[in-house]
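Reminder to self: tokens first, then the designed residues, so the page reads top to bottom the way the pipeline ran.
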């Protein structure tokens, strides 16, 4: 992981950038379009959105307006809870594709494991994958028992699991299971909504490595083998977040950061989510 263009190879051979831009809670229209264009300008090639974010059209506009060839970009979106089920997922996919103005997706995810529906939803994703409409399929916010359901009853194993992941929520058991199964872990809320920026350990390491607290946290993700998608709408911050490929955190310091784990979430618990 020496540059922003470096990729991990998913279980099906598809290359996925280690770092991308997340656009959760970024307003559709100029705000999200400008953020995505700024990210692409500064070397990002992966953009993560979702139908629930209600900004796919703005993301699509940025993609259309960039000079970067489509095949060099990695675009992710997700099916929302109310659209889950086999037929409804296929319809939701078509809507997302139209909103984005694309002919195919690089990665399509189930946003949350809606009980009684996520198996049918997964079968729809398998269909889309077999049809070549999406290069890779995966899930978001799935626990080990959810993943086991898909692996036991599905035809295709998830290639990615995107979960809340930061030093206060290291999810080591889940991470180990994903490694064993060849599922790439991906971090949402890698900065814990900014709440780790003033942590004493993170601040001390920031001073040691002459990097910002955010850069320390994002580098920790990558060195743990976790894809990361920090969100920002400010161009200087988008550029700064990506400036993490010119240093390595020493192993002892990696352990210090991991020891901050509290099993503390900022988002919902997937087993107790109000769907």
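Designed residues (275 positions):
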């Amino acid at each position: 992981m020496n540059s922003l263009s470096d990729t991990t190879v998913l279980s099906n051979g598809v290359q996925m950038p280690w770092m991308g831009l997340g656009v959760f809670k970024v307003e559709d229209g100029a705000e999200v379009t400008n953020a995505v264009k700024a990210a692409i300008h500064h070397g990002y090639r992966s953009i993560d959105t979702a139908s629930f974010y209600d900004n796919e059209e703005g993301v699509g506009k940025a993609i259309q307006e960039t000079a970067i060839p489509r095949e060099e970009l990695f675009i992710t979106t997700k099916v929302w809870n109310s659209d889950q089920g086999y037929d409804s997922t296929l319809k939701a996919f078509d809507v997302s594709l139209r909103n984005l103005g694309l002919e195919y997706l690089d990665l399509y995810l189930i946003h949350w494991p809606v009980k009684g529906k996520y198996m049918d939803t997964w079968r729809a994703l398998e269909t889309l994958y077999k049809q070549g409409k999406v290069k890779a399929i995966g899930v978001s916010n799935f626990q080990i028992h959810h993943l086991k359901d898909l692996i036991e009853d599905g035809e295709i194993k998830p290639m990615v699991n995107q979960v809340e992941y930061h030093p206060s929520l290291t999810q080591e058991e889940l991470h180990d299971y994903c490694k064993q199964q060849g599922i790439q872990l991906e971090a949402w809320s890698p900065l814990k909504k900014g709440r780790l920026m003033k942590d004493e350990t993170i601040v001390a390491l920031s001073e040691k490595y002459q990097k910002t607290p955010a850069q320390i946290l994002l580098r920790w993700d990558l060195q743990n083998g976790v894809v990361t998608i920090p969100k920002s709408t400010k161009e200087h911050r988008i550029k700064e977040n990506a400036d993490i490929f010119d240093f390595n955190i020493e192993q002892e310091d990696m352990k210090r950061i991991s020891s901050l784990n509290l099993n503390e979430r900022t988002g919902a618990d997937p087993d107790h989510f109000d769907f």
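The beta strands are 7-9, 15-17, 21-22, 46-48, 74-79, 105-110, 134-140, 160-164, 184-188, 227-228.
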